[in-house]
Amino acid sequence: LQWLSQFMARGASHDSKDQYDASKCHPDTRTQLLGDINEWLKITDKETGIMFLHGPPGSGKSCIARSVCHDASSEGNLGASFFFRRGTSDRNNAEKLFTTIAYQLSMVNKDLGQHVLAEVERNPQIVHMSLEEQFRRLIFEPCCTIPIDRLLIKAIVIDGLDECEDENMQVAILKLLAKAVRYEGFPLGIFITSRPELHIREVFDTKEIIFATQVVSLDRIPGVSQDIRTVLESGFTRILNDSRFRRCLKSIPRPWPSPDAIKKLVQRSSCQFIYSATVLKFVSSPDHNPASQLEIVLGIRDSRDNISPLADLDLLYREIMLRVPDPMRTAKVLGYIIAM
Hints:
This protein has helices spanning 31-42, 61-74, 97-108, 110-122, 131-145, 148-151, 167-182, 198-204, 207-210, 224-240, 259-269, 273-283, 290-299, 311-322, 327-339, and strands spanning 50-54, 78-83, 155-159, 189-194, 213-217. Strands 2-3-4-1-5 form a five-stranded parallel sheet, sandwiched between helices. The chain is α/β, with parallel strands linked by helices. The chain has 15 helices and five strands. Strand 3, helix 7 and strand 4 form a beta-alpha-beta unit. The two termini are 32 Å apart.
């Protein structure tokens, strides 16, 4: 299996060093949703073998996926995870998707490892075969061969499917996974997150897949504003208690921020967690006074765009970009990232 590890996508699993500092859900947020997902994962004989969670950019899909992985792993239910990431080699395409998942499955279950090792020794060219052949020989057949009471693991998590650069490949992956979970002997549930791109939604609306899938829309999850309030309040408390800021915040009137300021930030977030995360990063910049940074954020004029939920986030980004110490260098870096 050491040989197979050469064909893994580095940083793709939830417990890789690339994911170490990445955000998970605050322990007091998304509690009902995470509880429902974890209960679904534990079901051995699922009516729906795929759970598809979708939402717009910034709605917290990857945070939810990382939290699901963390909880499932701690309970021994997670078999493997793969986090796609746009612009990152190995993780912006599906070339190493199933070899990475197969390797992880082999590491958490010795019986699976023996089956995968036997297949790799029998046919080393498997890593260069089609995704369908890789999935069938390295994942599907080994999982269907082992008795359920010896398999123990219950789920595979795939995050950010829309960040796989080939739309046709996204569709092919979904059809392949749906075909697998419809087979009665396949024991694993598959949790997938993605933006609700049209071509992906169309796949989930087909007869072959719709009855095998439980769809969760983050747009319809209640209590998001309260969760964002919790994230903001917790984040600002952390800043207040940070020894780096203790002196400059000593004379700031409490409570800080004021309830009105928190309310304004929650409203501007438009239920997008990325807004609150960006505000907290900007305010906690080690080179600036957090109170002054917050005043800059609160001083941004409210967006007049009532259509886009990200309009206030755009204004926040614009303000941040106007204040970078070296705008020319920043522009070059951004240009390089966009060109990748």
